[in-house]
Design brief:
Number of strands: 10
Shape: globular
CATH class: Alpha Beta
Strand content: 15-25%
CATH architecture: Alpha-Beta Barrel
Largest sheet: 8 strands, parallel
Length: about 325
């Protein structure tokens, strides 16, 4: 329900549902709505949905776009209707918003370990039997915290997790192959967890130096594939398929080609790019130009987000 004092909503208008807005006949460029106001261009939005769907289809991978980019349930639905396999989130709180609006496959691209978050996930899984949730694990300490929570709460829930492989000096994730194997073995031995895949994030390697970016991302993906094959060989994965996930919104073309390693069971490559949907006019437009040069693209994403404001003065 929309109502004053929601930003961009006329103070004199009565509360109404989003479905009723179109019938008001408001004209943005005629001054019917207070500015500044951010809007989405439908034509560009539809183009971007179709573009990314085809990108993933051609490479045989799945898309789990990052929902934190928009925090808009209506756009989650558009992405799912366009073929997205899941919606990614950064926090359990964000995931709860998605679940409340019908998302039934959630990828939390972060470590989960706080009691309140584990309580929240358990509540969501209990309330929605058809819900699937995945999150990341990258340390023995995290596993111990989860097991302690499970014991204290007398819970029987088993969480589906992906092992995160990281980079020295950047964010989270196991730093070495040996460290990652130790964590994977510990996950396999835990009654609280089941290992369903391997994950990494290449965004910290972003560069328009094609040779440097290609070499750096290839090295990361080789490490990821080697880790997946080692865990597969040890029999530590559980489930009918293994999830292999990476992908921000800048180097997604470089990771997409390496998301399906040869394993003893099917591997599902999961790309998590989120900014493709709205795109922009500066930063991601420049980065996508680099993607276009690498792939020799003739058609790319279009900026779908615009902000309108009032110009009060054109100074000397």
């Amino acid at each position: 329900m929309l109502h004053p004092p929601l930003k961009g909503y006329p103070l004199h208008a009565p509360p109404m549902s989003t479905e009723d807005v179109a019938s008001q006949g408001w004209q943005l460029l005629q001054g019917d709505l207070p500015l500044p106001l951010a809007v989405l261009r439908e034509k560009a939005l539809t183009h971007n949905l179709n573009w990314m769907r085809e990108f993933c289809r051609e490479r045989g991978i799945s898309l789990a776009p990052h929902g934190k980019t928009t925090m808009s349930p209506q756009l989650y639905r558009r992405q799912l209707d366009a073929g997205a396999w899941a919606i990614s989130f950064a926090t359990v709180y964000q995931a709860g918003i998605g679940v409340a609006h019908g998302v039934r496959r959630v990828f939390i691209a972060n470590q989960v370990l706080q009691p309140a978050d584990l309580d929240g996930l358990t509540h969501l899984l209990t309330a929605h039997p058809d819900l699937q949730v995945f999150f990341l694990v990258d340390s023995l300490a995290q596993i111990e915290q989860i097991e302690h929570w499970r014991y204290e709460r007398s819970q029987s829930v088993v969480f589906a997790v992906l092992l995160e492989l990281g980079l020295d000096g950047y964010r989270t994730g196991c730093r070495t192959h040996e460290e990652a194997l130790a964590v994977a073995q510990r996950i396999h031995a835990s009654a609280a967890l089941r290992l369903v895949g391997i994950e990494s994030y290449e965004g910290s390697l972003t560069s328009c130096d094609h040779a440097h970016a290609t070499e750096a991302v290839a090295a990361l993906m080789q490490r990821l594939q080697a880790l997946a094959q080692a865990c597969d060989g040890a029999g530590w994965f559980e489930g009918d398929e293994v999830l292999i996930s990476a992908g921000g919104s800048a180097l997604f073309d470089l990771v997409a080609r390496d998301l399906r390693p040869r394993l003893s069971r099917p591997a599902r490559g999961v790309l998590r790019s989120g900014c493709y949907l709205t795109h922009d006019h500066v930063q991601y437009r420049q980065l996508l130009r680099c993607v276009g040069e690498r792939l020799h693209l003739t058609q790319t994403l279009e900026p779908a987000l615009e902000v309108l404001s009032v110009v009060q003065s054109c100074a000397e």
